[in-house]
Amino acid sequence: MPLHPFNGMSPTLHQTAWVAPGAQVIGDVHIGAGASIWYNVVIRGDVMPIRIGARSNIQDGSVVHVTRKLAATRIGDDVLVGHMAMIHGCTLMDRSFVGLGATVMDDCVVEPEGMLGAGALLSPGKRVGARELWLGRPAKFVRMLSDEEVARNLAGAAGYVALAGMHAASLGSGA
User: Fold this and answer.
1) Domains annotated on the chain, with CATH
2) What does pTM read for this prediction?
3) pLDDT < 50: residue spans in the chain
């Protein structure tokens, strides 16, 4: 298992969570029930804590970190974090979505059902409101999400719970 202590703090992983081979989870990190951490992800809670809620997923190649003495990272329940995202010292509230290759910087908040699109850069201290879609570098508000888009994102989170179970079974690692 790629869980590593740092400075006396060890990651904790709910028994139903899954961490893919090649991922690295370091220090003061808690991963909730049904959450999945995908291939080649780095989650480094070395100087502040990181909390990842139930059924959330951090997809392949993403990095989750913190800011010393300034900002922990909190990821709520049913959150989708796309491939190659950079999540740094911020809060992603329940059912939020961060697209592929997006960056969320220090002291940012993505509220419930808010969405930061693929490749976007959310600069320090910005807040994506509930059900808002933000795009661009730097990211700016574009429009409100439809009920269908919100439902699709929530279904995506559920789909990743099922997919993680299939990967775990295929690899014989359980989830």
Assistant:
1) 3-170 (2.160.10.10)
2) 0.96
3) none
